[in-house]
Specification:
Strand content: under 5%
Order of helices and strands: HHHHHHHH
Number of domains: 1
Structural class: mainly alpha
Length: 265
């Protein structure tokens, strides 16, 4: 009975939060696609700095170990991005050379095609984060069924603004709406894997939760600072700049408020 409750709770939190985020991002807020990139950057940074890292540092693990994990994570996602760029350049090099010979002007307009390194980084970090959420939900259900239900609801609530950011990152990397939804939903379903393994190995996995949280933080920090923020660094009018900053702060505020409420309960 407890295992079944853990499965339902983790899928509700992990996948349900993605669908709620998609309903907002592709429905009510669909007309603000460009502004959603600013919101995504704010949401990812706030998830890392205001939610995941503080939770990791509340553990008994030493700060030096956690900072080393953070550094390794940032370098890893940088290398992942470089590998994706190299693969993309190798794959399309011949066709680009042909385009250059055929039409120099046409080639110039497409000489820097978008890559999916940011998408892979955010999906990897999302999966690690969701796995950790699943372990936490499993531990809550094993302590008390009502506490487990509250934990699942809290995870769903604080993941919605974060997943809105994830979906926008994937959309900005030329992924269609449906493909973005499927990919983030698969990452969200890893919550159930964390819950099932947590049911059997909750004590052992709990010891590693701080490291999961820091690795997830490194991916969100890298994507926000290396992929999203550079896209926002362009000359704009005063009104557009104000809107960009406003949506960035909105993303930070949403995650911070929801995380604070989740911890309060």
């Amino acid at each position: 009975m407890i295992l079944f409750a853990i499965l339902v709770g983790t899928l509700f939190a992990g996948v349900g939060s993605v669908w709620v985020a998609a309903a907002l991002s592709f429905g009510i807020l669909a007309r603000y696609t460009q502004h959603m990139l600013s919101l995504a950057a704010g949401a990812l940074l706030a998830t890392a700095f205001m939610h995941l890292l503080p939770e990791a540092f509340e553990s008994q693990v030493g700060a030096d170990q956690l900072f080393m994990t953070l550094l390794i994570g940032l370098v890893f996602f940088f290398l992942l991005d470089k590998a994706e760029l190299w693969h993309h350049g190798h794959e399309h090099g011949h066709s680009q050379d042909h385009d250059r010979d055929h039409d120099h002007d046409h080639h110039g307009a497409h000489s820097h095609p978008p890559h999916s390194g940011g998408a892979w980084a955010v999906l990897a970090g999302d999966s690690v984060h969701c796995f950790g959420d699943g372990v936490l939900i499993a531990a809550a259900f094993m302590a008390d069924m009502r506490l487990g239900a509250i934990a699942a609801l809290a995870v769903l609530a604080h993941e919605v603004p974060h997943h809105m950011g994830d979906l926008m990152v994937l959309r900005s990397n030329t992924t269609g709406r449906n493909a973005a939804l499927v990919k983030v939903s698969l990452a969200g379903s890893v919550t159930a894997l964390g819950g099932v393994l947590g049911f059997w190995l909750v004590e052992q996995l709990t010891d590693y939760l701080p490291y999961f949280l820091v690795v997830a933080s490194s991916s969100f920090m890298y994507v926000a600072l290396a992929d999203l923020i550079p896209q926002l660094q362009k000359r704009l009018g005063a009104a557009q700049t104000a809107a960009q900053i406003g949506w960035l702060l909105c993303g930070i505020g949403l995650v911070t408020a929801v995380s604070t409420l989740a911890h309060a309960h």
